[in-house]
Amino acid sequence: MSIKDFSDDTKVIKTTTRPDPETGAINPPIQLSSTFVQPSLDHFGKYDYTRSGNPTRDVLEESIAALEHGNRGFAFATGMAAISTAFLTLHQGDHVIVTKDVYGGTFRLVSQLLPNYGIDYTFVDCNDEAALKAAFKPNTKVVYIETPSNPTLKVTDIKRVVQIAHAHDALVFADNTFMTPIFQKPLDLGVDLVLHSGTKFLAGHSDILAGLIVTKSKELGDAVYFIQNAMGATLGISDCWLLLRGIKTLSIRVKAEAANALSLAKWLAEQPIVEKVNYPGLEDFDGHDLQFSQATSGGAVLSFDIGSEDNVRQLVQKLKIPVFSVSLGAVETILSYPPKMSHAEMSAEERHACGITDGLLRLSVGVEDVDDLKADFKQAFEKIEASQLQH
Ligand SMILES: *Cc1c(COP(=O)(O)O)cnc(C)c1O
Fold it and tell me: What's the whole-model pTM score?
């Protein structure tokens, strides 16, 4: 059996432990060396300088490539550094199509930075097939998607987008941060390049920032390697090691978190104060069937609407378990309020148009006891309802 044949539960272990032939240490060392001795003037070793390659980073890059079924992996200082690098494969005069509900940092990069380099863009709802087809121009080189979307969890048909993009000679890039390779493997569905904010589920503990790219073809891998080395936003070696540590438990963490998310989503949907729950794991959710045709879980992130900003304000004060902060994908449950956090730059009209209502909260469910989480929400909801009765 080779690593390729293992299931992901085994792969997360076998790709991150590499017994050292000299010492027997089972973990790869944190190889903190910027430079490497060269054997002679005529012979060069495998490594020369850490920006171009480092043994610890190699283990991480090979691990994510194996998990995503890709040809080659790359590690970057942040998710945005990975995303910037992916867009730098484009040239002046090129055009990109980007899904409308894209991560805020990606929206900012595409709309405010790429135009300075002569790269044109169109944002479209990639679930609207007619709109997607109409967005192509003769110079469209990439379609960029993210599914499920943030924070309304809309599901995009990856295979269909790939079919349409490839018919127009455009590549497809997919941000797989929300699903992780444990639940969804975009390269298997025809995507050409996968991106991750390693900051989220892959690291998993709200500690480091990291970004990853996995390419399907050798050609695209070579192009990304050139930019990684030329631009130099590589992941620090100590953080490579921490990300490897995170990946060891990725599979058990995301499965536990997703099971908690499903249980909590069902419970939330029954609470009178909750007007709507967005979670692809719920059978009556719009994208449920599509989600389970291309992924194996609804994931660990959900959003729900409790009617008003005032209710949100009270809930945040009364909950004891979830931490109220930005970010997601960690062992602890993280509650965030998109209108004032991730989507604060949008106007109220823009937000409402894409379903980000004033009472909408996003929850990244952690590994705590789900009954404790329900009890915590229950006591908070009861206090909000009691205060409403007094008014
Ligand atoms: C957080 C996030 C990013 C950006 O990653 P950083 O590590 O914060 O730079 C990109 N895409 C998604 C979906 C994210 O959640």
Answer: 0.97
Tell me, yes or no, if 175 is annotated catalytic.
yes
Looking at the structure, do residues 242 and 267 belong to the same domain, yes or no? Answer: no
* Catalytic-role residue among 8, 18, 103, 225: 103
Cα within 13 Å of Cα(102), Cβ side? 25
Q: Residues 74, 218: one domain?
A: yes
Domain boundary among 248, 275, 302: 248
**Residue 314: phi, psi to the nearest 5?**
-70, -40
- CATH number at 322 reads 3.90.1150.10
CATH code for the domain of 75: 3.40.640.10
- Residue closest via CA to ligand 1's atom 8 equals 79
| 74-78, 104-108, 230-234: the lowest-pLDDT one | 104-108
For residue 386, the CA-to-ligand 1 centroid distance in Å is: 38
Do 241 and 288 fall into the same domain? no
Q: 62 CA distance to ligand 1 centroid (A)?
A: 21
- The pLDDT tens digits for 24-71 are 999 999 999 999 999 999 988 999 999 999 999 999 999 999 999 999
Mutate to test the pocket of ligand 1, among 100, 102, 103, 325 (most ligand atoms within 8 A of CB): 103
Write out the E strands in the chain: 72-76, 95-99, 120-124, 140-146, 171-175, 193-197, 211-215, 276-278, 301-305, 323-324, 334-336, 360-364
Its domain, for residue 338, covers 251-390
